[in-house]
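Entry for alpha-D-galactopyranose complex. Fields follow.
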Amino acid sequence: MLSRAQVIIPVITEHNAMLLQADKDGDLKTIYFGRKLADQAEYNKVAGVYHSSGDYTGVLNSAYTPSGSRNLAEPAISVTHADGNRSLDLKYVSHQVDKLSANVSQLRILLRDPVYAFEVTLYYKLYYKEDVVEQWSVIAHHEKGKVVLDKYASANLYLKADSYWLTQYHGDWAREMQPEETRLTHGIKTLDSKLGTRANLFEPSMFMVALNRPAGEDEGSVLYGSLEWSGNFKIDLEVDPLDNLRVIAGINNFASPYVLTPGEDFTTPEFLYTFSDKGKGDASRKLHTWARNYKIPNGKGSRYTLLNNWEATYFDFNESKLGGLIRDTRKLGVDLFLLDDGWFGNKYPRNGDHAGLGDWQENKEKLPNGLVSLVKEAQTEGVKFGIWVEPEMVNPKSDLYAKHPGWVIKQPKRPEYYFRNQLVLDLANPAVQNFVYGIIDSLFIKNPGLAYIKWDCNAVIYNAHSNYLDKKQSQFYVDYVKGLYKVLERIRSKYPTVPMMLCSGGGGRVDYGAMKYFTEYWPSDNTDPLERIFIQWEYSYFFPAIASANHVTDWGKQPLKFRVDVAMMGRLGFDIVIGKLNPSDLLFCQNSVKTYNSLKPIVWQGDQYRLADPGKSSIASVMYVDSTKASAVVFNYLVNYRYGAESKPILLKGLDPQKQYRVTETNLYPGTKSALDVQTVYSGDFLMTVGFDPIVNANRRSVVLELKELPGK
Ligand code: GLA
């Protein structure tokens, strides 16, 4: 029989390993995190390499740090027991690995308090080929009364390096995903949100930590992490007294002690991470593959190109105007017409953002024949029809607000405080969950031809208070998100394949907790293509292009071609007035849709390489290569006009060095000729070693290259 000191639990994926060890006292510790060893037999030597000194040091590397006993560092979990005692200790009991498929396995480790009837099971879901781990914990007890979870993290990692370089993001409306990289100093750096809904507006939970030095696209060791949770989160990055990095990630315990009755389970959301010692590019390609294979609905499938009316009409439309836009959809050659905000509300018509939210009946003045007739019109034109909803929200000027004041999140004794003139509905309340589900369900029941949903969420939660939760207010932030997921779960079980866009006044809620239900996300209301290059670049570290909804609009000063090229790096859509395009602009857009249709399998399913960083050079260049390396597409943009920047050869990546490729320019504006020599053929080796100059300059600000393998060469 193994003594407890010998229990080593390897958490292994194709290239990485995390080693956990239950020591002689039963404490579960992380003793290694990083690249996998060639000889797995050597794992049992690792523990002997590290010699902890001092009384306190042996607990810093706890695999799930309890609070109130020996630990003095930031805990992963802290509780108040039924008898009021606030100490917790967690000892290893057992572990088990279940093979879920050829590629996916799940490790469970049971930990138990030796004194209290309290236990935690740590879960590690391992995606072998993608080197991705989802980690969460299930907390339960059988004490005599209620236990309060004061903190309940999903995961607690421990990394060893000489220095740690954190890349984090901040933002606001129309400027999402602004990166910042800093060296972590001793103490705790916290990434968190307290916004409730739209939780990522100021700061998402996505981050990277490079070890020893900042990582590049192709070099360096880097951890990517993110919490799969669409609400308040807290990620603590603590450089401890031994210079090691403790990462503690989970739901934010801010204002949220959670009461657990005996026998009840609390399941934390998954903390998602991957690690690469080959740089940021490799890590992000792993995440993309994982997301397409396992997380994003229809990740390996296709998406509808579309025409959206938001910026073309705002709230000002009627049936005949929309009829014209539906015909424009067909004229443009895209798949679907998306009707945005403003189609509902009668007593309080939705003619602006100050009224009508919550009243999901067609506005009789704008749409006298209802959505049914629009859906039919779209069918006649041979295009699909999609619709915008914001079902979690209510304007005080609405029938819903008048009828159900108790469904609204607000403080009973304080004045209401609005965000975009609206309040959030209380999704902790099952009656509200039914209502929100019913909005979507009845849209589909009444309009079986409905083919697409854009789900918006424009307000944060002020005055957090649930009428329904009564004395359990501290559960509100958690129960809101759980309520939201219950609704989305129901929608997905009845409508598993319908494409849905996740929007939150832009990218206020882009996270993998929500992306389990949505086929795509709206990165930002900022569609200025120059800004979008930067925003899409940063999202691309974490999310695959197939999930990025990119629309051509009138934002920015760039030429139409530039705007279309940028929108092609994801799911292409248009939000412009087609009727106002001059003939050559229209022709260009129509041709672009055709070109996009031929390129989209590579953009959606190919491997992405970020070649030239817009933050570091005058040119941005992003490449997608199909899995057989037979074809590729490279998008190149001039992003900085200072010093009359001219392009130079860009080193391509991901090609087969042995293959011969013809490089041509595609998506040219009608009447223009490419500056490139189309005759030359290059080997993959040449293109990746010497490079290729797309000739980007002030007259050619955006250039799309297509690479095709020459057969038989
Ligand atoms: C939000 C979205 C926009 C649009 C408007 C409608 O701001 O991000 O795309 O749908 O709401 O009111």
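NOTE: The mean pLDDT is 96.
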